[in-house]
Design a protein that fits this description.
By secondary structure, this protein is mainly alpha-helical. It has one domain: Up-down Bundle (Four Helix Bundle (Hemerythrin (Met), subunit A)). About 75% of the residues lie in helices and about 0% in strands. The chain has six helices and no strands.
């Protein structure tokens, strides 16, 4: 059961990150911050991503050390705060830096450790 939860969390992380990447594609910082609907949906997806990342247990995090777990943990706390310039900065940092890096590393790990992403433990499960 733990393996299924871990795989599901990784799936949520990937889906939310992909949604953010699609939503912000081609947008400049000010365009994103001015667009109430897009900004709101990006923030919702980032909260989902950060919350899912926070639930990944330390042993599973160790299997994917290049993912910025601490960065997502810090952003989860920041996303819970009221609207401010600091929240705007966190939102843009996530979109421009953390989301692309997260998607890149998830793809690398899907290739090198596919068992982490399978919903049912396989025979190669460690």
């Amino acid at each position: 059961m733990t393996h299924i939860l871990h795989s599901a969390r990784l799936g949520l992380i990937e889906q939310a990150a992909t949604a953010v990447a699609i939503l912000v594609e081609g947008l400049e910082r000010e365009e994103l911050l001015r667009s109430r609907l897009t900004r709101q949906e990006v923030l919702r997806q980032l909260i989902t991503l950060a919350h899912s990342a926070a639930q990944v247990e330390p042993p599973e995090r160790l299997q994917m050390p290049e993912l910025d777990w601490d960065g997502w943990d810090a952003l989860q706390r920041r996303f819970a705060e009221p609207a401010s310039a600091a929240l705007d900065e966190a939102l843009w940092f996530a979109c421009e830096s953390l989301v692309p890096a997260t998607l890149l590393w998830l793809r690398v790990y899907q290739q090198s450790q596919p068992e982490l992403f399978r919903m049912a433990p396989g025979v190669d499960q460690k």
